[in-house]
Amino acid sequence: MSSTPRFNTASSLDVVGIGNAIVDVLVQAEDQFLSDHNLSKGSMALVDEDQAKSLYEASGPGLETSGGSAANTLAGLAQLGSKSGFIGRVRDDQLGTIFIHDIRAVGTRFDTPAAVTGASTARCLILVTSDAERTMCTYLGASTQLDPDDLDLSMVRDTKVLYLEGYLWDSPAAKKAFITAAEACRDSGGQVALSLSDGFCVDRHRESFLELVDGHVDVLFANEDEIKSLYGTADFESALEQVKGRCSVAVLTRSAQGSVVLCGDQRWEIPSYKLGDLVDTTGAGDLYAGGFLHGYTQNLPLDVCGKMGSICAGQVVTQLGPRSKVSLPDLIAKHLD
Predict the structure, then answer these.
(1) Residue 151 pLDDT > 70, yes or no?
(2) Cα-flanking dihedrals φ and ψ of residue 186, to 5°?
(3) Which residue intervals of the chain are DSSP H helices?
(4) Radius of gyration over alpha carbons of the chain, in Å?
(5) pTM of the model
(6) pLDDT > 70? residue 103
(7) What is the distance between the alpha carbons of residues 24 and 302, in angstroms, rounded to a whole number?
(8) Which domains does the chain have, with CATH numbers?
(9) Which strand ranges, in their side-by-side order, compose the sheet holding 84-87?
(10) What rounded mean pLDDT belongs to the chain?
(11) How far apart are CA 75 and CA 71, in angstroms?
């Protein structure tokens, strides 16, 4: 990489994210609970409001936090010391109040007004079994009703990186909001990052994701399944070759095999960090993105950014929930080469 800084603007925010505003309810569950409710272990199922309510009432005590992929990333960024902001829609109900309080409490700016009509606040019941598998039942509710009118473009124009969550691509209104925000950010000298979020999401929107990556994205985050789905191949190396040059930086995670960071013809192999026993994989990719973007917006070398992301991911899988219970800056200082 050139020694030229990526960012030399006077932006007051490092990363602003747009994504589903979801309250995560994490519950430790037995396999029998999954069987009793006809849930397939390890799956992510969309449910309606009535199903979400009945499952919530039947489950045991849970940990409730502001969630959603981008929100988890921004919470990690805030803990690392980055200045972060979030744009997403909640309803003016109990879970909406929980989301707003929680995301602000971790240090992330959130100014989107709560909706006073329409669907209730989104929630995701995450059932974690003893083998650390996650089974997720998600009601998307108000989060999918985000539209361009909800955007605080002053925040978007005042950030180094705009981080977009691929899960929202299912909503036409949110898709339009994405493009509006991406154009505003780039016009103001910022960069756009995208997380592909889920292989099934990529399958549904492959062509439009390809257009988005080619036309609007500077930094792409994807796991192995997502990048193979995007380029329609069963071979990781083939997908890697196809993404080269499509955006400035591609960050491809491979679980225990670590990750690969690409920039032009340069390639860095990043190791995984085993920092304890595996408890819950919720938020691993989100925290990787948070660690990477923290380094990226501080103009650190890309291999260092990758290691920071890998350390953050290695920590969060050793606990229940997507918010680190230990100091991420201390961990990075301890383990970074």
Answers:
(1) yes
(2) -65, -35
(3) 31-36, 49-58, 69-80, 94-105, 153-157, 172-187, 199-204, 206-216, 224-230, 236-243, 284-297, 302-316, 328-335
(4) 19
(5) 0.89
(6) yes
(7) 31
(8) 13-335 (3.40.1190.20)
(9) 108-110, 84-87, 13-18, 159-165, 191-195, 219-223, 249-253, 259-263, 266-270
(10) 90
(11) 6
Structure tokens that stand for 237 in this block: 């190396």
Q: Count CB neighbours of 9 within 10 A.
A: 12
Residues contacting residue 100 through CB under 8 Å, at least 6 positions apart:
66, 90, 110, 114
Residue labelled with tokens 């509006």? 180
Q: Which residues contact 191 (CB under 8 A, 6 or more apart)?
A: 6, 7, 160, 161, 162, 185, 218, 219, 248
DSSP states along 94-142: HHHHHHHHHHHHTTEEE-PPPBSSSSPPEEEEEEE-TT--EEEEEE-GG
Name the token pair of 332: 């990075």
Two structure tokens written together for 127 = 């059932």
Indicate whether 302 pLDDT > 60. Answer: yes
Report pLDDT for 8.
Answer: 66
Tokens of 323: 């918010």
DSSP assignment, residue 337?
-
